[in-house]
Design a protein that fits this description.
By secondary structure, the protein is of the alpha+beta class. The chain is about 30% helix and about 35% strand. Coenzyme A (COA) binds near residues 97, 123, 124 and 130.
Length: about 160
């Protein structure tokens, strides 16, 4: 994971990056949903009716802010006894600067601190290496979501409580 010298490769040394939890319906959540539309609907062609679902209202949402602007987002939902991370997106101009990795690590820490033991995610096949680097392992066969090949990935967490 990138944490050091090239952290702000695209962002610039004077920019301030922070990761915050946002409430559904808040202005930052509106910006996060707009980023998801930009990335998944416009860039990847996922139908809006699949991208935005009822889980958004009950999910935990994290965003990355750079100088107060939402440039990254993900959501955490429950999946049986595991937590599921999904809708991971970073604005195009801010990619490959470690923003996605740091957002994923913050989500994992939050899940662990609230007693979670494992995280599941449904990874787009071309992005598997991004998640592997963060400690996730593939399991099962390739399946399709919104016409895009995906594989399930899992990461075990150190925790004494149950999710
Ligand atoms: C996937 C995504 C969130 C990664 O965010 P990011 O901030 O660019 O990721 P990072 O900079 O932390 O990447 C860390 C490492 O992960 C790997 N990685 C990142 N994006 C990758 C990609 N698109 N393909 C393959 N490997 C990738 C690389 O090893 C990268 O290190 P490097 O830049 O030194 O090569 C971002 O590319 C994105 O929003 N993509 C479109 C939406 C999407 O596909 N989401 C995932 C759905 S499962």
């Amino acid at each position: 994971m990138k944490t050091g010298s090239n952290r702000f490769r695209h962002v610039g040394l004077m920019n301030k990056e922070e990761i915050v939890r946002v409430d559904y319906g808040s202005p930052q959540m509106v910006a996060a949903l707009s980023l998801r539309k930009e990335v998944f609907v416009d860039e990847q062609g996922v139908p809006a009716g699949l991208e935005f679902d009822k889980d958004d209202q009950s999910a935990t949402h994290l965003v990355t802010l750079v100088d107060g602007q939402v440039v990254g987002t993900l959501r955490i939902t429950a999946c049986g006894r595991a937590a599921r991370i999904g809708r991971v997106a970073v604005r195009t101009a801010f990619r490959r600067a470690g923003i996605g990795s740091r957002l994923m690590e913050r989500a994992a820490r939050m899940i662990s601190e609230s007693g979670g033991r494992e995280i599941l995610l449904h990874a787009q096949l071309p992005i598997v290496d991004f998640y592997r680097d963060l400690g996730y392992s593939e399991e099962g066969d390739v399946s399709y979501e919104a016409g895009i090949p995906h594989v399930w990935m899992r990461k075990k967490l150190q925790s004494r409580q149950l999710w």
